[in-house]
Amino acid sequence: MSKGILFLLYTFTISISVLGQKNDFLTKFELTNQKETVTYEEGIAYYQMLADKFPEIKMQEMGITDSGKPLHLVLYSYDKEFDIQKNRSKRKAIFLINNAIHPGESDGVDASMMFLRDVALGKTLKKERKGTVFAIIPFYNIGGVLNRNSHTRVNQNGPVAYGFRGNARNYDLNRDFIKGDTRNAWAFWEIFNQLNPDFFLDTHVSNGADYQYAITLIATQKDKLSDHLSPLFEKEIKPFLYQQMEAYEEPMTPFVNVYGRKPDNGFNEFADWPRYSSGYAALFNTYSFMSETHMLKPYDRRVNATYQLIIAMGKSLASNKKEILESRRVADLEVMKQAEFPIKWELDAKDSTLISFKGYEGRYIESKITKQKRLYYDKSQPFERKIVYKNTYKPSLVIKKPSYYVIPQGWHSVLKRLKQNGVTMSTLKSDSTIDISKYLIKDYQTVKSPYEGHYFHYNVTMDIQNEKITFRQGDYLIPVNQVKNRYIVESLEPQAEDSFFKWNFFDMILASKESFSSYVFEELAEKVLLENPVLMREFELKKQEDEFFSKSRYVQLNWIYERSSYREKEFLRYPIFRIE
What we know:
The chain is of the alpha/beta class. Helices cover 33% and strands 25% of the residues.
């Protein structure tokens, strides 16, 4: 441990003993009248102090992040057993909380510190803690936490100082869970796959509109969950959380997915694709959530609302533990045998429900600055009324899984990501000729501005063809008969919402490496047509029907080249193959 952290630890201990002579481990949030959040060094020192005091708590360093500092994982286990597999054998549930993914949104940082202390002291979840392992990532975006300031959250009501949204390489980490551009994501993958949590919570702060709630909730879309998870999720877990928050006098509503307009006319459920933490976690049959406190509410209220939600989730996990563990076990077995997988989704605009919503009357008034109309929420006119909530998503594209994917060993960046996420695979022991299905990319569109380091592709269309291809010794076979099937399919199928193809992992195939010289290719082109009468007839017909084609010698020769054996086979051929 560094001298700096030891000094901070000593400072914390002295401060605590001076305040009331009670060994109650007050946090910086509490010591500052609930107005400040800890720095990175203060937070790690606090958790280390808890670990030193309570044998039920252990803090360990995981992988290195882009900041150069390690990601920490703090575990609480009532019987002091920290081996995850042994805890699983004891039928313990695992609850993972991730904090400071956006360090300006520090509510969960302070709430988690108080929560773990109170669990250790037996002040909360006294009965429930025995059957649950609580796992906390104190700071996920360490680089952003270290970039401390008091101005980048321009609309936020506290704390006094906080971190920055971008990480050490200016990535938004809540867009990186499927693609893994950052060391943070790789360290998280290690933690997540080691724990295989039953509940996962990522803590956030949001705005977008104004309303009475201090906290809202993103829960994984019910339609994307396994049929073995969704009923319990919708009928027991989520209703319990809302009821508990109401009982705590901090009512909660679904995340208000509205920007630039009043929520009075209703809103849609947030689409948590696998790039986001909760969407990623759901790929592994984890019940996953994001808390979203409201940035205009006072900091003390936001932190305490997050604290109460964590307690409510702990109670829900404990009271439904048997059903939760069993539902995940059955879902894992089913996904191994599942034949078809939705890989794209669309909002079902015809399916909606009415929810009670507590808002403020909004109107458009003249801006004193621009003299144009601006949205204004009148806090003196609160209301509660029924509004439309659309929370049903339907599959827009479903694919049949293959028996295997074949990945040539040269695509090591993809293979490393699959391995880090616990995907089972094997290598060919010798060169082998295999009957496969291959995708040929027909068309795609690409965004014009970079998004999180990528110019991602969309509206991908493909042809599928069968062929015998010889693969080399050491190329990889990925069986699609494992618990990781959803992750495998949604990352490897090119048309999937957050596939590796979408995120530019295969852009090398989108440009040809060879071509032809037209003055040389003339004789070969003529030979190709003479040896293929069907192609000859198609060529002549196209000249008759397409004026541009008929007037361009190069375009005609290229058309023949693209349909000949001389065309490079790698161009526009997706390099991940399917064994049906």
